[in-house]
Specification:
Layout: E1 3-7, E2 10-13, E3 18-25, E4 34-39, E5 46-51, E6 57-60, E7 68-73, E8 78-83, E9 92-102, E10 105-109, E11 113-118
Parallel strand pairs: 2-11
Antiparallel strand pairs: 1-3, 3-8, 4-5, 4-9, 5-6, 7-8, 9-10, 9-11
């Protein structure tokens, strides 16, 4: 059974940092694009960042450029999201995704981890 499990979320003050992790199991995703998305209360899920199979970031949402960094360790089947200079508007449930099939469409999704940034 394929699973993506996010961790590292929590409550942080504005200006602080968090590092999210997403550990995959059940199959290797080393050959696929992986990504992070987020969904704030009352809003649609939005793209945050994506990374190719070689560990090169493909793109970031404009709202997080310069503050967030996506990375991966294929040997651990894990993707990370380092979030710095957090803002209250970054508050959301963050989801990782694996095996992109095109655009923002992925075959596998995690259950999400809550990030709350207080002002």
């Amino acid at each position: 059974q394929v699973q993506l499990v996010e961790s590292g979320g929590g409550l942080v003050q504005a200006g602080g940092s968090l590092r999210l992790s997403c550990a995959a199991s059940g199959r290797s995703f080393s050959g696929t694009v992986m990504g992070w998305f987020r969904q704030a209360p009352g809003k649609e899920r939005e793209f945050v960042a994506a990374i190719n199979r070689s560990g090169v970031p493909l793109s970031y949402a404009d709202s997080v450029k310069g503050r967030f960094t996506i990375s991966r360790v294929n040997a651990k089947n894990t993707v990370y999201l380092q979030m710095n200079s957090l803002k209250p508007e970054d508050t959301a449930v963050y989801y990782c995704a694996a095996d992109r099939v095109g655009g923002y469409s992925y075959n596998y999704w995690g259950q999400g981890t809550q990030v709350t940034v207080s002002s």
